[in-house]
Design a protein that fits this description.
Elements (H helix, E strand, L loop, with lengths): L8 H8 L6 H8 L8 H12 L3 E5 L6 H11 L4 E5 L6 H5 E8 L2 E8 L1 H8 L2 E5 L13 H4 L4 E3 L6 E3 L5 E6 L11 H4 L2 E5 L5 H11 L5 H19 L10 H10 L5 H8 L7 H14 L1
Parallel strand pairs: 1-8, 1-9, 2-5, 5-8
Antiparallel strand pairs: 3-4, 6-7
Helix pairs in contact: 9-10, 10-13, 11-12
GO molecular function, one term: ATP hydrolysis activity
Protein name: MoxR family ATPase
InterPro entries: AAA+_ATPase, ATPase_dyneun-rel_AAA, CbbQ/NirQ/NorQ/GpvN, ClpA/B, P-loop_NTPase
Length: 290
């Protein structure tokens, strides 16, 4: 089955002409809310989705994977149905469920479609978040959805559902966290994998300006430097990945518009950490900048 996607002509032209570094291209990306660390990451994701392939976004928590998925959805002018995986994820959470309803005076059993079937029948994107949080026996239910067949037999109705043109799958994974399990090879082989690193430097500065209420240039610069130090500490094994979450940093930037920056860092970053040693480390870093 060939799946045809419709990228806006403007984006298609800019990519084909290798003008992905142009200001116009950057403006189009910025509208989606995620600025990738490098344009190759975005071009590769667009290419894979345009060819009907599934994309797996792999990276640390708070690196912007969900925002990246939303940006891709925006670029393709595609709505997106979402699945949030957990150990409780089951067939009903993925596919839908039966319920009682009324047709006039008559009581009937009605099937209410879930996110997978909604995305397939509407020809839109499906986003599967924290895919490795699901029990290993759950996700094989949609193996046929994720390969060339793009079909599934609905176990609740016995209907065979084939995805409409435009259907595509984006998934995200955080590795090494409590409650996660390694993806089995059959599932992993159904995806093109993209490593999503933390956003740093100019990209982070731009992200703060466009996604928070903070406008003070000096404060923005200090938050960018703080983020760089936190990421380096994570790389060195001094902090857990939670401490360098870009999502948490953006929250701190927002709060610092109305409360002192050190307290904003305390509420958004420090108090989320479990170990006292890590809390003190981040507090000391914040002291040097604020």
């Amino acid at each position: 089955m060939t799946i045809n996607y419709s990228l806006p002509n403007e984006i298609t032209t800019l990519i084909k002409e290798k003008r992905s570094h142009s200001d116009k291209f950057q403006d189009l990306i910025r509208q989606g809310g995620y600025m990738p660390p490098n344009n190759d990451l975005l071009i590769d994701a667009i290419t894979a989705l345009s060819m009907g392939k599934n994309v797996l976004l792999k990276g640390p928590t708070g690196a912007g994977k969900t925002k990246f998925a939303e940006t891709l959805s925006n670029l393709f002018n595609q709505p997106m149905f979402s699945v949030n995986c957990s150990v409780d994820l089951d067939a009903e959470s993925l596919l839908g469920f039966k319920t009682l309803s009324y047709q006039g005076e008559k009581q009937v059993i009605e099937f209410v479609p879930g996110p997978v079937i909604n995305a397939m029948t509407n020809g839109t994107f499906l986003y599967i978040d924290e895919v490795n949080m699901a029990k290993p026996e759950t996700l094989p239910l949609i193996n046929g959805v994720l390969d060339y067949r793009r079909t599934i037999t609905n176990p609740f109705t016995n209907d065979v559902i084939t995805a409409k043109d435009g259907f595509g799958v984006i998934a995200a994974i955080n590795e090494g966290y409590i409650g996660t399990v390694p993806l089995n090879e059959a599932l992993k082989n159904r995806f093109i994998v993209l490593e999503i690193p933390y956003i740093e430097g100019e990209q982070l500065e731009q992200l703060i300006k466009t996604n928070t209420q903070l406008t003070d240039e000096k404060l923005i610069e200090r938050f960018v430097k703080l983020s760089s130090d936190l990421i380096q500490a994570v790389v060195q094994g001094k902090l857990s990945e939670d401490a360098a979450s870009i999502r948490a940093l953006l929250d701190a930037c927002d709060l610092s518009v109305l409360i002192p920056p050190k307290r904003a860092v305390l509420r958004s970053i420090v108090d989320k950490l479990d170990e006292e040693r890590e809390k003190e480390f981040v507090k000391n870093l914040a002291e040097t900048y604020f």
